[in-house]
Amino acid sequence: MRHGLYHESVSVLPVCVRLCLWATAAYAGQLPVAEAVDRAHPDLDHITGDLGRLSLWRDLGERAVLVALPRPGNLAGMPRGSTELIAAATDAGECVYVPGIGGVLVPTIEHFGPAGDQGTRVTWSAYDCDPVPAHTLEALSLSEIERGFLQELMERTRAIEALDARPWAGSPFRSMADERSVSQWGLPDGLPSRATNIITMAALVGVAAELGLSVPAQSQVLTGAVAEQRRMLLTGLDAIADTAMAAAATVSALSLAGLRPSQRRADS
């Protein structure tokens, strides 16, 4: 998944997924907001921008910070807002937002420093958005998110296998995927177990898709037509993983905030 893979030692989870969950845990009293920010950015060297909004939102009564992982043509989970917001969020591939008063933070991630000794900087920019209707969030179901994700995963995996263009055999890509998949993601306690499973699976699917889309992996596919079909299938696989991860993380945040009491049994 492109959002979280800044360098080899980094969590495979997008920074917005981590900020969503840690900030909501802070709103619920598990830790101070400043510590939540640190917990969400353990792999980044410099953090700047409008993160003061997190404390402002809490003071204005927000109880949960939610997440979207949009891309061009797929704005699933995004609150409604200006064209400037949509452009920034789709360019970043991620954002966090609060549903009550309507506010968004979008990260810009950049490398700095000389080759061989580079650091990673994230700058957070604030935008306004429309409030998100409560019934939209209440309708989210972990069982439905999981079922839809698994179904699409199965269908796309079969289609990729049918191409007979798998780059893993005799290559380092499988071991690279396994290496990244054991990253310690450091999420807060109290998440619904089903949501954690969805987030974990979606992250691993994203890692596999990104490695499969890499130039060395694509170069092992013999024909241009097969390579293009495979690229489209892997890109779609990455997109459905993003959608499932963001939805599961949003449900987790709502659960941490105590905003889904009637859903506890179904979410477990």
Q: What brief labels describe this structure?
A:
268 residues, alpha+beta, 2 domains, 5-stranded mixed beta sheet, 11 helices, 5 strands, 51% helix, globular, disordered N terminus
Overview of the structural elements:
This protein has 268 residues and is an alpha+beta fold. The protein folds into two domains: 15-132, no CATH class; 142-242, no CATH class. The protein contains eleven helices and five strands, in the order ααβαβαβββααααααα. It has helices at residues 15-27, 33-40, 52-59, 83-92, 134-138, 142-162, 173-181, 193-212, 215-219, 224-256, 264-267, and strands spanning 46-49, 66-68, 95-98, 103-112, 119-128. The chain has a five-stranded mixed β-sheet with strand order 1-5-4-3-2, with helices on both faces. The longest helix has 33 residues, at 224-256. 40% of the residues are buried.
Helix and strand pattern? HHEHEHEEEHHHHHHH
- What percentage of residues falls in helices of 4 or more residues? 40-55%
Q: Radius of gyration from the CA trace?
A: 19 Å
Biggest sheet layout: 5 strands, mixed
Class based on secondary structure composition and strand pairing: alpha+beta
Q: What is the total domain count?
A: 2
Count all strands and give the number.
5
Average pLDDT value?
84
Largest beta sheet: what is the strand line-up? 1-5-4-3-2
The percent range for strand residues is: 5-15%
Q: What is the general shape?
A: globular
Count of separate DSSP helical elements: 11
Low-confidence stretches: 1-10, 167-174, 180-184
